[in-house]
Fold this sequence. Notes:
This protein has one domain: Amino acid/polyamine transporter I (Up-down Bundle), CATH 1.20.1740.
Amino acid sequence: MAGEITETGELYSPYVGLVYMFNLIVGTGALTMPKAFATAGWLVSLVLLVFLGFMSFVTTTFMMEAMAAANAQLHWKRMENSLEEEDEDSSSGSDSDALTQDNYEQAEKRPILSVQRHGSQHLFEITDRVEMGQMASMFFNKVGVNLFYFCIIIYLYEDLAIYAAAVPSSLMQVTCSAVGNDSCGVEAHTKHNDTDPCWGPLRRVDAYRIYLAVFTLLLGPFTFFDVQKTKYLQILTSLMRWIAFAIMIVLALVRIGHGQGEGHPPAANFSGIRNLFGVCVYSFMCQHSLPSLITPISSKRHLTRLVFLDYVLILAFYSLLSFTAIFCFRGDSLLDMYALNFARCDVVGLAAVRYFLGLFPVFTISTNFPIIAVTLRNNWKALFHREGGTYPWVVDRVVFPTITLVPPVLVAFFTHDLESLVGITGAYAGTGIQYAIPAFLVHLCRKDTLLAFGSGAVNKHRSPFRHTFWVGFVLLWALSCFLFVTANIVLSETKV
């Protein structure tokens, strides 16, 4: 749950942590990025991708500094509690009024001496997994905490809507054809409409909604229970993901190498920037999960360097996947879910590979849906939680799961435009979680640390972007993104 201090879990090496972060960031957004690249143009897309990757790295370092500051507070409270226990033990054998002036002075100076003895480096070790919601409650006021939960709940709702639409959409694209039931799925240069036939009298949109209903009936009940992702499930889904990505990149390169590349993307098309921006922000989203990723790393000595290396690798991967896609396929034939472009006989001759690539989003996304649904349900509980209070059984087991599951399914029922869903998610809720919240957290945690420990305490995990300018720049950028996307949507609707 976002508001809890949780167990650290089993420790792993820094390089394993690097792989985990890579797997977390490279998810559904990567599959929607090629179409966004083709729409906005290769040069504009590359520049924006690099810039947004840099901004995400900046706020990731902000989050690590805030995590260290939160740990320092917890470590300090434990030290104070242990010192109080020592005082009680030492005073139990003497009269209550026997506190001398020397003992009083020692008690007054003890916290300062403790900082000097243990050192600020020890205080700022990231050993407790303090989730984003708990950091918000530490450093924000009541209004800030509520705004945080509002932002993350909206983001999780939109995330669930993307997942609820992606799975039925993939199944529809693979199993339906405009000319009948064939084994090749999507046909070359064919743009299907929702009203095109699928099976007999059923239209494609009917098939999509049938798949959505089945998806909801199969995975929806998990929202009403507690579910955990196992280690072996992570390994299996990660393995499937990287096999699929490798096959897509290799097949695209082979087609381009054989002169079969159909794509001629423009250098710039500013009308496509809105969706590209949202997709790129969504594709670098990891800030809300950093406590779970960073805390179990056994050695955090060169943590910032490793994270920087991760971002460089992710940028290289996104660029390779997107550039091979936009030069392999025509821009108007690229589908929202990139893997579906390989469900064509003229692209992949082997039926097993076609079905694997066409259906791989179904398997990987389906395993994540229950996890995100339970996370959203728990955030709803945390938002309305009162100290010492409990919820009635109906509210806890029925109301919260229902308000978690129904809205994203309704959104998916009315639209399966994944590029727009991802774009809106990244542009609004993603901007808050990736930019605004980390910037406010690091600013307030610095003030709190200075007040609590003085200027002599140095946060060993402080961001290299420690100047106040960077906090202001990130907040200004977040505001600019919000205004730009809103204005773009309003202007687009006005033109229509």
